[in-house]
Design a protein that fits this description.
heterotrimer; A mainly alpha (56); B alpha/beta (93); C alpha+beta (346); A: 56 residues; mainly alpha; 2 helices; 54% helix; B: 93 residues; alpha/beta; three-stranded parallel sheet
């Protein structure tokens, strides 16, 4: 699950209400409104997070 | 003094944990699920492209909610459960 | 081990004055920022007595997914400053926002500014003294102020919509404190809203929509219904309201003087709705290219060079409220929601 750092508390609160423990990849906020160059950094971070999370 | 707790409620969520099947992220079919907010699809597409350096990606598919403001429709959830071993959700921004 | 107080329905506290209770409530996260009444067991019992016999179950309240008790619901109404006789309206309002189509989870977790708009119809408006006339969206009337506030507190405490955590609104909205008014049925030249929806005139009904604050529709100059609709449609053609996505309902609350002009010129609720739908649209020149692509890719395509603001005329919900003056109001919704009406028990 990819969430921005700003919205991490929302994901955790909702997960707690459902008694689940999400595997979370947190990237910088925001996603919307970024141009292609700005979005590239988020893609790099999310891919790195995914690779690390799934290697465990 | 005795007061009534305004936040009191009985949880409707089962305490049982869902058993997850193991996922091989280097080979298994993966669903990339967008919350339909701007750039969510582009973010997932960028990740898919990068994963292409280490695995085949023709079994990594895009799915999305009908609207950013609505929950994912039942048929999308069922499709994810039926066809994919793993799902990556672009969910909170 | 002592039980966590959040899991207790009744909490034993040392005797404290109202100021100390308010400090305690803030620490618990129970406050909307304004002073609260103390929800003692005795006060709560008086509220619960007003809904005895209404045994319909309350479904789990999202996002927190808990089923409240009548006592915990009443505790919020007490804290809000309601009188006991308001409580059936408050419980009906909670039932209404729990309509699955209302999308309570989405409307609370969204970055949009939406808050529950509560409209009361039927004889109970006068029994409780709900303001339907001048300044009906504003201050000065206890039921308007506290019924909306009670629902807001229930959404905070029971639903778990804590600002900055589960409630992610970018800027919020003063209506999150309260937005409750009565229809002005007496100056409505058409059937009242609840009758439009199939209820009996004598039924007491609560209607809710997850909406923005009221957008004023000022028209002092027009002397015809035709002229008024031109102004209304212009005000509703708003590229910054969530309804620009073309999904979801909206309220048009017509002031009595505007309503009288429209009625005199032969307009009905149906013809007003159709005219407003036909005329309320936004030219592509007022929408950025990137937004046009977003709307189109999510299924909301322009008709020629124009984006509509709804799916059909039925997305426009119309009634009359307010007092003398040449003003009406447009209240766009969150978008992914519905207008839900529930009969008040009793």
């Amino acid at each position: 699950m990819i969430a921005t750092e700003t919205f991490k508390p929302l994901v955790l609160a909702q997960a707690k209400a459902r008694k689940v423990e999400p595997k979370l990849i947190v990237v910088k906020h925001p996603i919307g409104g970024l141009n292609a160059d700005e979005l590239r950094e988020r893609i790099e971070a999310a891919t790195k997070g995914l690779t690390e999370a799934t290697a465990k | 003094m005795r007061i009534v707790n305004p936040a009191f409620g009985v949880s409707a969520t089962s305490g049982e944990k869902v058993a997850l099947k193991p996922v091989n992220w280097t080979t298994d079919a993966i669903a990339l699920v967008s919350n339909s907010k701007p750039n969510a699809r582009e973010l997932l597409a960028g990740i898919r492209e990068k994963l292409g350096a280490t695995r085949k990606i023709d079994n990594i598919d895009f799915l999305s909610k009908n609207s950013a403001s609505q929950p994912a429709p039942k048929d999308v959830i069922e499709e994810v459960a039926a066809k994919y071993r793993g799902a990556l959700l672009a969910i909170a921004d | 081990m002592m039980k966590d107080i959040t899991e207790q329905e009744v909490i034993d506290l040392p005797d404290m004055d109202v100021e100390a209770f308010n400090e305690f409530a803030v620490e618990q996260g129970w406050s909307d920022g304004m002073p609260l009444y103390v929800p003692t067991e005795a006060k709560v019992a008086k509220f619960v007595d007003t809904v005895r016999g209404d045994n319909r179950p309350i479904p789990p309240v999202p996002p927190r997914q808990v089923v409240p008790t009548l006592q915990s619901m009443a505790a919020n109404a007490v804290m809000a400053g309601c009188k006991p006789e308001y409580f059936p309206v408050v419980t009906a309002a909670l039932r209404a926002v729990l309509d699955p189509e209302y999308n309570l989870h989405g409307s609370l977790a969204t970055t949009h500014s939406c808050a529950p708009v509560i409209m009361v119809s039927g004889p109970i408006r006068h029994q409780l003294g709900i303001n339907c006339g001048s300044n009906c969206f504003g201050q000065g009337w206890r039921p308007n102020a506290t019924i909306g506030r009670a629902l807001g507190l229930m959404l905070l405490n029971i639903a778990g919509a804590k600002p900055g955590e589960m409630d992610r609104s970018t800027q919020g909205n003063p209506a999150k404190y309260t937005f409750c008014f009565g229809e002005n049925e007496e100056e409505n030249p058409w059937p009242p809203y609840h009758v439009q929806r199939g209820f009996a005139p004598t039924d007491n009904v609560v209607t809710v929509m997850s909406g923005e604050g009221p957008h004023n529709l000022n028209d002092h100059g027009s002397t015809t219904g035709e002229g008024l609709l031109t102004t209304f449609a212009g005000g509703m053609s708003n590229p910054g309201a969530n309804t620009i996505y073309g999904k979801g309902p909206m309220l048009v609350i017509i002031g009595p003087e505007h309503a009288a002009t429209l009625k005199r010129d032969g307009f009905t609720i149906e013809t007003i709705r159709e005219e407003l739908f036909r005329r309320s649209r936004v030219h592509v020149s007022r929408i950025s290219k990137a937004n046009q692509e977003t709307y189109t890719s999510t299924g909301h395509k322009p008709d020629g060079d124009w984006f509509s603001i709804g799916r059909s005329p039925q997305d426009i919900h119309i009634t009359v409220a307010g007092g003398p003056g040449k003003h009406s109001a447009f209240i766009p919704s969150f978008g992914g929601t519905t207008v839900a009406s529930v009969r008040i028990a009793g």
